[in-house]
């Protein structure tokens, strides 16, 4: 029986905090999931805050939720609940599974609505929200935030996480006892070493013989930008020849540009332009500890780059230390610098580890990965029916 045959009858109400307002890994994954489900004949309706000029066109039908902008982070909004018009829309759509993907008040209300109607709930966890306060001088709030997240996720029938390492963190935090994987795929038409463009590098002022240490990400402090900058300072102080290429934009860009005036900032890139930028790097340096999977890491590996990452959830499920890159203790500036220096000075190791990473990236097929979510929907529906 085909996947589309298995999926017939699914009616999914997906609640997102930011479905297409910002181009980030979680939003791209959710839109790709909805696109796959629709191609399989699944009925999907998405409920999310909306803005007048979103980053991209959404996959599927989108119903706007009331929301407010996060102070200091206006690009993100918080869904505040389910007004009567949304509840009427839900009743008319009649989902047989509810999927929440952001722990905001809208998601809390969606879980309550589903439980009142006897509908199973799947929660997908995309970000280490519990670690965010430490980047804004609010580390005292982490235990409170963890408790709020636990209350929400324990009310779900199951969770999906993008990596086994993060799933284990959720288990250790007692978020839920039914946690499976919804991994991430990589678009090999975009991310491939064949898109390397030396002419593009030259136009940025980078010589052919210079080794480029690259970062491509949304430029926000929780991506470890301070650790990145401190590590580059140590390389400069040690006289290690290199160039730094930063691809991306975000609220911390001005801080980052002032902190690394010698770096090349290429701004936001998307699609084939992003693939060209990544393939034109020589090594990825990504010290973030907030990733639950590490789309950036996988895309760099598909482009045959060795990856130097923090030993944290997400990266440690992708990078094999000493084979496809290096995993370094979070915040260990000197160790990060030594790992990068080794790749700068040893082109043979750089090529070998990049090739091994590309082989590892071949394991990630989007259709297979997204069908695993549909399979989880079907399992939860069966289990709910059996309990009745």
From TrEMBL:
Pfam families assigned to the protein according to its UniProt record, in alphabetical order: Glyco_trans_1_4 (PF13692), Glyco_transf_4 (PF13439)
PANTHER family per the UniProt record, alphabetical: SULFOQUINOVOSYL TRANSFERASE SQD2
Species, as recorded: Novosphingobium ovatum
Taxonomy of the source species: Bacteria, Pseudomonadati, Pseudomonadota, Alphaproteobacteria, Sphingomonadales
Ranges where the Glycosyltransferase subfamily 4-like N-terminal domain occurs: 24-187
SUPFAM superfamilies in UniProt: UDP-Glycosyltransferase/glycogen phosphorylase
Entry protein name: Glycosyltransferase
InterPro entries for this protein: Glyco_trans_4-like_N, Glycosyltransferase_grp1
Coiled coil: none
């Amino acid at each position: 029986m085909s996947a589309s045959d298995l999926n017939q009858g699914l009616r999914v109400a997906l609640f997102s905090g930011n479905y297409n307002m910002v181009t980030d890994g979680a939003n791209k994954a959710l839109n790709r999931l909805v696109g796959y489900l629709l191609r399989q004949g699944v009925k999907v309706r998405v409920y999310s805050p909306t803005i007048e000029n979103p980053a991209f066109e959404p996959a599927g039908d989108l119903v706007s939720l009331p929301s407010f902008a996060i102070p200091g982070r206006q690009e993100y909004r918080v869904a505040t609940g389910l007004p009567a018009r949304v509840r009427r829309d839900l009743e008319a759509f009649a989902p047989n599974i509810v999927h929440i993907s952001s722990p905001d008040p809208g998601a809390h209300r969606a879980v309550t609505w589903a439980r009142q109607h006897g509908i199973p709930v799947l929660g997908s966890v995309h970000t280490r929200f519990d670690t965010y306060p430490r980047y804004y001088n609010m580390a005292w709030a982490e235990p409170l935030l963890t408790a709020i997240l636990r209350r929400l996720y324990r009310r779900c029938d199951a969770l999906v996480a993008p990596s086994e390492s993060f799933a284990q963190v959720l288990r250790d935090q007692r978020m839920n006892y039914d946690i499976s994987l919804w991994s991430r795929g990589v678009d090999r038409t975009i991310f491939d070493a064949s898109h390397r463009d030396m002419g593009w590098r030259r136009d940025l002022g980078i010589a052919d013989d210079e080794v480029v240490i690259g970062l491509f990400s949304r430029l926000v402090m929780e991506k470890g930008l301070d650790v990145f900058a401190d590590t580059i300072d140590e390389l400069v102080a040690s006289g290690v020849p290199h160039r730094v290429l930063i691809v991306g934009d975000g609220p911390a860009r001005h801080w980052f540009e002032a902190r690394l005036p010698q770096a090349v900032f290429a701004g936001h890139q998307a699609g084939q332009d992003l693939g060209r930028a990544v393939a034109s790097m020589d090594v990825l340096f990504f010290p973030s500890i907030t990733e639950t999977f590490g789309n950036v890491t996988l895309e760099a590996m598909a482009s045959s780059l060795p990856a130097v990452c923090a030993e944290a959830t997400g990266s440690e499920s992708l990078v094999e230390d000493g084979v496809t890159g290096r995993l370094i203790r979070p915040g260990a500036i000197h160790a990060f610098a030594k790992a990068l220096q080794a790749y700068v000075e040893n082109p043979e190791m750089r090529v070998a580890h990049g090739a091994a990473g590309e082989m590892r990236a071949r394991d990630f097929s989007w259709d297979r990965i997204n069908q695993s979510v549909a399979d989880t929907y079907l399992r939860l529906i069966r289990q709910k029916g059996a309990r009745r």
